[in-house]
Amino acid sequence: MSRTYSVDEVSKHTAPTDLLLIIDGKIYDVSNFKEEHPGGEDFLLDQGGKDVTELFEDASHRPEAREILSTLTVGTVPSDVRLSPILDE
């Protein structure tokens, strides 16, 4: 069962064994997917705890990527929260 996370709460999940990302208002636990990520483990570790919606969409992922994401869903952010990506410059 998924739960609702605050953006602040997600931002604290940046450890390799506890790695969450936000994409389109959903929370994904990518802790066990790091080694399989085509962009590399370091990319996910660098983005841990952030809203990566823009990065995900810009990468033009194949439909299979969304299928994988569906298996990693652990929650959502409140629907009244408008997220903006927090990207490292």
From TrEMBL:
Pfam families in the cross-refs: Cyt-b5
Q: What is its main location?
A: endoplasmic reticulum
Query: Does the entry feature the keyword Metal-binding, yes or no?
Result: yes
Domain annotation Cytochrome b5 heme-binding: ranges: 2-78
Q: How does it sit in the membrane?
A: Single-pass membrane protein
User: What family does this belong to?
Assistant: Belongs to the cytochrome b5 family.
Q: In its UniProt entry, what is this protein called? A: Cytochrome b5
